[in-house]
Amino acid sequence: MKSAEEAFHEAVCAFQEGDLERARSLCGNALEISPELVGALNLFGIVTHRLGNPEEAVRAFRRALEISPGLAHLHSNLGNSLNQVGRNAEAEQALRESLRLLETSPDAWNNLGNALRPQTRREEAAECYRRALGLRPDYSEAHLNLADTLAEMGELEAAIPHYEETLRLVPGHPDALNNLGSALEAKGLHANAEEVLRLAVARAPTHPRTHYNLGVALVQQGKCGQAIRSFETALKFDPNFVEAHDHLGSTFSLQARHQEAVECYVEALLRDPANAAIHSNLLFVLNYLDNISSADLFREHLRWAEKHAEPLSSKAARPGRRDRQGDRVRVGYISPDFRSHSVAFFIEPVLALHDRSRFEIFGYSDVGRPDAVTARLSALADCWRRIEGLSDEAVSELIRADELDILIDLAGHTAGNRLLVLARRPAALQVTWIGYPNTTGMSAVDLRITDAWADPPTMTDQLHAERLVRLPSGFSCYQPPKDSPDPVPPPALRNGFVTFGSFNNTAKLVPGVIEAWSRILQRVPSSRLVLKARQLADPETHEFFLRRFEACGISSDQLQIHGPTEATPEHLARYGEIDIALDPFPFGGATTTCEALWMGAPVVTLAGERHASRVGCSLLNRVGLSDLVADSVEGLVETAASLAEDLDRLSRLRGELRERTRSSTVMDAAKVTLEFEAALLDEWARIGRA
Question: Rounded distance, CA 631 to CA 123, Å?
Fold first, then answer.
């Protein structure tokens, strides 16, 4: 019969050969003979941990420590197994004891970092990994852990070299490739991220997170077809992968496949019903559907609020009105879009013209990658707070500490919104404006700013949880880019045919829009249609929309399809290729309509029964082109055809629309800002009287 030492020696050999099951069995044999053999207890713990039973490993290490409490490596191994089962505070205690006994153990420092990270003590964890690397510079696991921790802290520049060092030490390390790709994506280096993530997929072809990250990098480049396949592959390997369902829905939406998008969001919410952000994504995409009634859409918004916002609002007391002697009213704007984004075109002129004798302006910016626009906007505020990475509760407390009077949401149910901050009622008066063409559904939001064209009195009031406040001159004002090129004569004069166009997001090109625009092309002989959107650079998406038009009788030679242009002047210059801009429905354009008018291209729109389909109506009425607003698809076709037949009017409009837009309330920021401020002060006074 073998002695305990012989069985233990054979167990060590089996472990070194990678035969974990045999090593475990032999350790068990040794411990049956000699239950207090510390080496066998330690190896048994290591092996059972690796075999996926860390709880049993914890018991083995604790037994070994009862016998030999002064061995540092036992405390370290115990801490490692405690980390694995989520008992991080106990793990920290064990690892600190290990380091008290042997401060030069790189494994103990690494494991201590692993105990601190789940406790959100990331800076301490990063220092532990640095200590491990100081002792063992080629410690690949510590490089990877430090990189992941720095990435979680938002320090991507510092994280990337440690991912790269991990890959130098362990070429093709799948986690390092995946996480490096994710970091590059977070920095906006989408093509670099794609390259790295393709290597990660090759190394770990069944890893759902890697396929998902690749899909994110692809969709950010407008490669919708490939992104869809990546998300679907991720879901094949993990059908319960909530984020993959969510992103697949968003990508379907970019191809105007909104019913499929709805199904994806529903699948995500079945698995994570408390996810307010995904539920907001569902609401957003419902605005594109022409087969949902306004009443049903309103009920869906109320359902979101009932699920996510009202439980918070019911516990939150509305702050009392603070009257500061001689002080200004404190107004805060909260948005994820204080950057190069459409919202900036409409909020910047208001921030610049606020009456600083009456208002003190705060900005709450949830922007992960600030840019030049962020810098401009922040300079227009009295106080600018960066809130990226902060919880909704922390942001709410920050706003309360700032003693804000009025909080204005600029996102609604768009991506990255902070509606659950407003649900906590940090300000006495809460308002939603500009960013989202519908109600929030929330009782905690008091007002929604609009106008009588976008929301005619009695038409939409009953479809809002908020009270509608209609600005007399229009609900927004547009600030065009300073480097805008001059308008050029209508291309019909040189082409001999009329060119229609739309530079709207492809998500708005729903089947009903394609059918209506196809009828316009058929109604106007020899006419063409120009489409321009970031997603159309993707060959698969390009082909997808070509097929949709072909199904409506429009050949590819009647279409000119463009992807994005990097620089703003070149983008605006493309409006010189179209005679008449077409506004999609039921979710119309806003920025694109303003751009077209600024560049001299008249816009034809179909006014629907809710705000999303009436922004064009508002803008055209304000520039004196109410005759280009149709109230039916038949009317839209006739309006577009009549304008196409009137080349004299097209030439005249091309020459005068810029000045007409400039002198209208569409660009009268001073007037719109005064009306907006008056509305805020009226409501503030009402709260005071109440």
Answer: 60
pLDDT tens-digit readout, 219-229? 999 999 999 99
The residue type of 633 is V
Separation of alpha carbons 447 and 101, rounded Å = 63
CB-hemisphere CA count at 13 Å for 613?
Answer: 21
Say whether 291 sits in a helix, a strand or coil: coil
Band (1; pLDDT cuts 50, 70, 90): low
Distance, C-alpha 217 to centroid of its chain? 13
Helices 224-237 and 242-254 pack at an angle, to 10 degrees, of 160
What are the phi and psi torsion angles at 187 (to 5°)? Answer: -85, -5
Long-range CB contacts (within 8 A, 24+) of 680-687 = 680/329, 680/331, 680/406, 680/429, 680/431, 681/329, 681/358, 683/429, 683/446, 683/447, 683/469, 684/321, 684/329, 684/405, 684/406, 684/429, 687/321, 687/428, 687/429
- Tokens for 57, please give them: 């490993």
Structural domains of the chain ordered from first start: 4-184 (1.25.40.10), 253-313 (no CATH), 329-455 (3.40.50.11380), 492-667 (3.40.50.2000)
Beta-bridged to residue 451, according to DSSP, are none
Residue 324 reports pLDDT greater than 70 = no
Q: Specify the DSSP class assigned to residue 117.
A: G
Position 2 scores a pLDDT of 77
Report, as an integer, the average pLDDT of 630-656.
97
Tokens coding 75: 């405390």
Name the token pair of 575: 């409006």
User: Could you give the 3-state DSSP secondary structure of residue 333?
Assistant: strand
| pLDDT score recorded for residue 690 | 66
> If 0-12 CB within 10 Å is exposed, 13-18 middle and 19+ buried, where does residue 642 land?
middle
Give yes or no for a contact between 300 and 439, defined as CB atoms under 8 angstroms apart.
no
Rounded distance, CA 194 to CA 295, Å?
42
Q: In what order do the strands lie in the sheet with 499-502?
A: 559-562, 528-532, 499-502, 580-582, 603-606, 629-630
d(CA 537, CA 544): 12
Q: What amino acid occupies position 189?
A: L
Report the amino acid identity of residue 414.
Answer: T
Give the helix ranges, DSSP H, for 591-668: 591-598, 615-622, 633-645, 647-662
Decide: 628 and 620 in contact? Cβ < 8 Å.
yes
566 pLDDT band, cuts 50/70/90, is: confident
Task: State the Cα–Cα distance between residues 507 and 533, nearest whole angstrom.
Answer: 10
**% of the chain residues with pLDDT over 90:** 94
Which letter does DSSP use for residue 444 in this model? T
Give the chain's end-to-end CA distance (angstroms, integer): 92
